Amino acid sequence: MPKLHTTLEPGDVVLIPASSGASITFTEKSGKRSRVVIESNSPVTITRAGEQQHTAGPAQRVARRPVVAGS
């Protein structure tokens, strides 16, 4: 399983696809930053706090829990 070593800051959003078998391990905390290792079989998207979205659509994207169809 591929590993991604990254630093997360307040406001960062990590989007992990459902059924990817992913895990997140916190390795270090320094002030407001957290050093993490993300293991996932699928690509993971990290949106940095303060980055501008260059695509048309809502100004703010919100990660939501998956909803089972037909509920």
Task: Explain the overall architecture.
By secondary structure, this protein is mostly beta strands. 0% of the residues lie in helices and 38% in strands. It is built from no helices and five strands. The strands form two sheets. The protein has a three-stranded antiparallel beta sheet with strand order 1-4-3, with no helix packed on it. β3 and β4 (33-39) form a beta hairpin. The model has no long low-confidence stretch (mean pLDDT 78).
Chain-averaged pLDDT: 78
Order of helices and strands: EEEEE
The total of beta strands comes to 5
> What is the count of DSSP helices, taking H or I runs of 4+ residues?
0
Strand percent estimate: 35-45%
Quaternary structure? single chain
From the alpha carbons, calculate the radius of gyration and give it in angstroms: 14 Å
As a percent range, the share of helical residues equals under 10%
Poorly predicted spans: none
Backbone structural class: mainly beta
Largest sheet: 3 strands, antiparallel
Q: Order the strands across the largest sheet as they lie in space.
A: 1-4-3
* Termini gap: 32 Å
Coarse morphology = globular
